[in-house]
Design brief:
The chain is an alpha/beta fold. The chain contains six helices and eleven strands. The chain has one domain: Class I glutamine amidotransferase (GATase) domain (Rossmann fold), CATH 3.40.50. Strand 3 and strand 4 form a beta hairpin. Helix 1 packs parallel to helix 5. This is DJ-1 family protein. Keywords: Repeat.
Length: 184
């Protein structure tokens, strides 16, 4: 069973975080949520989220994918955390999946992981002048090799379903999507 780490920063976008966690778990993926600190996470709209564990407690584990929810100031907290940057670079060096949605692709851009790649993000989150090597798209979800990016809360379900497809295949994605009563 694939394993996915979802770091939860104070001020993350709750719709994105919960959608990612929920859909991946529906697919049978081992999802571990990890707070950057030991406090409950107050998301961007005031929703309280309780992480499964602390980031420090899982840094030694190997995950098939690391997924960053967006939101502000959550994405800024992720970008400012040297543990997150080291984790992303290690994940990239090991040729394992990295995914980010909404404002979180700027964390990947800041770490240099989007240089020469196509990506999408919340409008204005990744400044093309600051990151001229990133090929920005307005597509809802962009997959470029082992890096997956998405636009925002409205694309969270498509993003999570794409992650399921990458980890488990189209049949698993379709099964989860049918259970959501979405039009295929």
């Amino acid at each position: 069973m694939p394993s996915v780490l979802v770091p939860l920063a104070q001020g993350c976008e709750e719709l994105e975080a919960v959608t990612i966690i929920d859909l991946l778990r529906r697919a049978g993926i081992d999802v571990v949520t990890a707070g950057l600190d030991n406090r409950p996470v107050t998301a961007s709209r005031g929703t309280l989220l309780i992480a499964d564990t602390r980031l420090d407690d899982v840094l030694g584990r190997t995950f098939d994918m690391v997924v960053l929810p967006g939101g502000l100031p959550g994405a800024d907290h992720l970008a400012a955390d040297p543990r997150i940057i080291a984790l992303l670079r290690s994940q990239h060096a090991a040729q394992r999946y990295i995914a980010a949605i909404c404002a979180a692709p700027k964390v990947l851009a800041g770490a240099g992981l989007l240089d020469g790649r196509s990506a999408t993000a919340y409008p204005g989150a990744v400044d093309p002048e600051a990151f001229p090597k990133v090929r920005l798209s307005d597509a809802p979800v962009v997959v470029d090799s082992l890096i997956v990016t998405s636009r925002g809360p409205g694309t969270a379900m498509d993003f999570a379903l794409q992650l399921i497809e990458l980890l488990l295949g189209r049949e698993s994605r379709d099964q989860v999507e049918r259970g959501l009563v979405r039009t295929l």
